[in-house]
């Protein structure tokens, strides 16, 4: 650490207490010296200047007091501010404020914790001398505070890429040493700038403010610069003639390419560290080439991470690296290796002789390296990079190959890429490669051969993928070319070609529903699915589609009934589909379907069709007598009466009640239907005319049977009576108000003479109609744009002011 003036003081002052405890930090301010020690104590000393007998200036010390900060960890940093009479200590990540004179703790409302280091701004921008600026480093963040005697105010935050280890502040700038680099931050603009990196395992970073607008950075290497120079000279002597005079300048050493070549070959790690250490602008080109050479040396040693880092820093032409891999450069590339060469590697196969594992590692290294640089802008050489990746993926990673060839931004040569994929039997990738280049015919040919089994490729998803491609294809001629091919293999999948067309699919004659229906007559399963799509999804109200679908449903039911092993579940499901269609649609030919349903004793379907013909009694008799579905009969009435007027609802429920109470029924049936008839009368959802019900029920019924119905009917009748009376009273009141308004209007008299003109257009009145505003302005009705505002004077009237004329 550096403490102004403290060095001279310590030269003349021996503090005995230093042997009793371990000092962690020091701060000197005026006559006070503050010492932070390991056990969370701060000790205050006073220093006095005295003269000895020989006239020399000496210093004496007196221990004044000590203060325990309340933590178990050392006090790692102390700063004193004489302007505020405050001492600021950092202990266990907490900022502690004490009085400068007696070290009494000073409590501030704001607590600052998790602090790695802090500093004071010795060149603040404010004009108030009693406000000091305090910069605090926390996790990946700098925080700026304003400190007064009684208040700590947070000003702003600046984000850092890493946590600061030490900081110094001058004006608006803060220089910070992070865990691997130095940065400088502009507090006013919340902006940080990278300065240069350093090695944290070899360096103790320091930042010190020297004077106004001058910050000095220190990188204290454990191996100091003289040692580096001796190591450098020692390395050179191993490969060159003995150096007679070791007093060489650093510039002459850096400028010598032959020296660097020997150095790199013999001391790779050391030379790379020197390159980083001495990387000045004037040596940039030399350094780039040296880093490239070092990268190839690391690659020859199979140090892949180190090689990648050097290639990136040396801005290597990626073709130099691809060229050592046989057959990866495209045939159309005109690349020639650098002269003089950067390396002595013929190719990686020669480098990895008798070691297939190492060869695969080299290929994986190139693949990952190309992936990394591919995402960076401005790299160039897209033809070479994409071609190399395609060939590497074909060998090492089929999933990534599919992604690459599916990309429309693939820079591979079309002919070379297609030949390579075909020769290496990546047929699905080949089809995608053709598709992304617009050659759909070749792509579909390849996929169809995969489906047919002529080609095999584990990456191909199967027939469903081909169907998805055809469904999205806007070239309808190609769609029809392969429609039969996929229909013959799976009708349930193939129908998606026609039912999952994109919304932007161009309407053409080839894709009209009639054309598709005619085509699908050879494929009955697909035909049913397509008609369902037209009826239920597209909701086309075309009679032939609805009737056709209903007939197909009916034929399927009959076929299931006639089969030798009848499956009741399948028959029930098939009938439910038909019944749903009959309920849902009103566009089919009812009489045609009714005849077929009667012929085959499909009673539930007959009831629905009778309902479509408004023959409700026939429908209800089927539900009650044929199916004995009393709940279904009531639901029939509720469904058909929904949204209808009261008379219609009454007629439906009276019809059902009449079916239950049919006098032509024998005694046994009448007794069986007594319970559903009473249940219908007592239903909360059914609606009846009580008078007609009393006319329908048998005379022998007791009052107890219809007691609940009569109570409900009486309540309903009284409710309607009260409602009617209220409505009548409201109507009479409205009538009185209207008559009063009419009388009030007729009290005023207006004489409209021939010479009277409109207040807006200034034309005479040729008809009896006119608009009269409350301020006696008269205009034509067509000139009255707003009934609440006079167009002549601009007066605005309320609704009560208006008098209609």
From TrEMBL:
It comes from the Eukaryota. Its main location: cytoplasm. InterPro entries: Clathrin_H-chain/VPS_repeat (IPR000547), CNH_dom (IPR001180), Vam6/VPS39/TRAP1 (IPR032914), VPS39/TGF_beta_rcpt-assoc_1 (IPR019452), VPS39/TGFA1_Znf (IPR019453), WD40_repeat_dom_sf (IPR036322). Keywords: Cytoplasm, Lysosome, Protein transport, Transport. CHCR repeats lie at residues 501-665. Residues 20-301 form the CNH domain. Pfam families: CNH, Vps39_1, zf-Vps39_C. The keyword Protein transport applies. The keyword Cytoplasm applies. It is found in: Cytoplasm; Lysosome. This is Transforming growth factor-beta receptor-associated protein 1-like. It comes from Limulus polyphemus. The gene is LOC106473588.
């Amino acid at each position: 650490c550096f403490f102004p003036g403290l060095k001279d003081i310590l030269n003349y002052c021996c503090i005995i207490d230093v042997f009793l405890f371990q000092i962690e930090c020091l701060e000197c301010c005026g006559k006070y010296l503050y010492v932070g020690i390991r056990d969370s104590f701060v000790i205050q000393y006073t220093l006095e200047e005295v003269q000895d007998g020989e006239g020399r200036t000496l210093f004496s010390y007196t221990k004044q007091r000590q203060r325990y900060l309340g933590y178990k960890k050392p006090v790692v940093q102390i700063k004193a501010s004489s302007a505020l009479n405050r001492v600021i200590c950092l202990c266990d990540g907490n900022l502690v404020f004490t009085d400068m004179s007696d070290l009494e703790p000073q409590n501030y409302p704001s607590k600052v914790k998790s602090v790695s280091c802090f500093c004071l701004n010795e060149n603040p921008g404010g004009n108030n001398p009693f406000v000091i600026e305090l910069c605090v480093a926390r996790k990946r963040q700098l925080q700026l505070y304003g400190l007064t005697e009684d208040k700590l105010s947070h000003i702003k935050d600046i984000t850092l890429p890493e946590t600061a280890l030490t900081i110094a502040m001058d004006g608006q700038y803060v220089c910070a040493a992070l865990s691997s680099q130095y940065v400088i931050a502009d507090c006013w603009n919340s902006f940080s700038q990278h300065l240069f990196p350093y090695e944290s395992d070899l360096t103790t970073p320091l930042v010190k403010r020297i004077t106004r607008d001058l910050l000095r950075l220190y990188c204290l290497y454990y191996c100091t610069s003289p040692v580096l120079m001796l190591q450098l000279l020692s390395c050179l002597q191993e490969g060159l003639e003995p150096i007679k005079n070791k007093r060489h300048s650093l510039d002459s050493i850096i400028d010598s390419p032959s020296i660097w070549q020997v150095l790199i070959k013999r001391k790779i790690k050391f030379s790379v560290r020197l390159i980083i250490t001495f990387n000045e602008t004037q040596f940039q080109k030399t350094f780039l080439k040296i880093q490239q050479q070092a990268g190839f040396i690391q690659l020859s040693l199979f140090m892949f991470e180190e090689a990648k880092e050097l290639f990136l820093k040396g801005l290597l032409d990626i073709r130099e690296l691809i060229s050592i891999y046989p057959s990866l450069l495209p045939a159309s590339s005109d690349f020639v290796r650098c002269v003089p060469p950067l390396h002595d590697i013929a190719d990686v196969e020669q480098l990895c002789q008798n070691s297939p594992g190492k060869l695969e590692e080299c290929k994986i290294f190139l693949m990952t390296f190309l992936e990394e640089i591919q995402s960076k802008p401005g790299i160039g050489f897209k033809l070479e990079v994409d071609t190399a990746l395609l060939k590497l993926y074909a060998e090492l990673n089929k999933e990534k190959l599919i992604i690459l060839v599916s990309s429309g931004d693939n820079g591979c040569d079309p002919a070379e890429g297609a030949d390579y994929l075909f020769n290496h039997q990546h047929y699905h990738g080949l089809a995608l490669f053709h598709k992304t280049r617009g050659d759909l015919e070749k792509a579909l040919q390849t996929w169809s051969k995969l489906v047919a089994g002529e080609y095999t490729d584990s990456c191909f998803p199967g027939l469903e993928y081909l169907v998805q491609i055809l469904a999205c294809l806007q070239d309808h001629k190609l769609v029809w070319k392969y429609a039969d091919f996929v229909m013959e293999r799976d009708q349930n999948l193939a129908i998606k070609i026609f039912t999952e067309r994109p919304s932007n699919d161009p309407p053409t004659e080839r894709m009209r529903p009639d054309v598709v229906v005619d085509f699908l007559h050879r494929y009955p399963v697909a035909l049913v699915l397509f008609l369902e799509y037209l009826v239920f999804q597209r909701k086309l109200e075309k009679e032939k589609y609805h009737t056709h679908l209903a007939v197909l449903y009916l034929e399927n039911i009959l076929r299931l009934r006639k089969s030798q092993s009848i499956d009741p579940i399948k028959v029930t499901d098939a009938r439910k589909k038909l019944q749903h269609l009959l309920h849902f649609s009103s566009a089919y030919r009812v009489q045609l379907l009714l005849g077929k349903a009667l012929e085959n004793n499909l009673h539930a379907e007959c009831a629905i069709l009778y309902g479509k013909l408004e023959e409700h009694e026939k429908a209800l008799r089927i539900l009650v007598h044929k199916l004995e579905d009393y709940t279904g009969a009531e639901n029939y009435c509720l469904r058909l009466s929904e949204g209808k007027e009261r008379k219609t609802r009454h007629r439906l429920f009276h019809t059902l009640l009449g079916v239950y109470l049919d006098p032509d029924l024998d005694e046994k049936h009448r007794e069986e239907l007594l319970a559903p008839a009473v249940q219908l009368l007592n239903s909360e959802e059914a609606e009846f005319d009580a008078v007609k019900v009393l006319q329908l029920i048998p005379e022998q019924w007791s009052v107890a049977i219809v007691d609940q119905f009569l109570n409900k009917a009486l309540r309903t009748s009284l409710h309607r009576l009260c409602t009617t009376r209220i409505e009548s009273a409201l109507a009479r009141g409205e009538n009185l108000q209207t008559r009063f308004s009419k009388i009030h209007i007729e009290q005023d008299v207006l004489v409209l003479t021939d010479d009277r003109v409109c207040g807006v257009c200034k034309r005479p009145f040729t008809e009896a109609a006119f608009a009269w505003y409350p301020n006696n302005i008269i205009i034509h009705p067509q000139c009255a744009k707003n009934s609440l505002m006079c167009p002549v004077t601009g007066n605005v009237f309320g609704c009560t002011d208006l008098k209609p004329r």
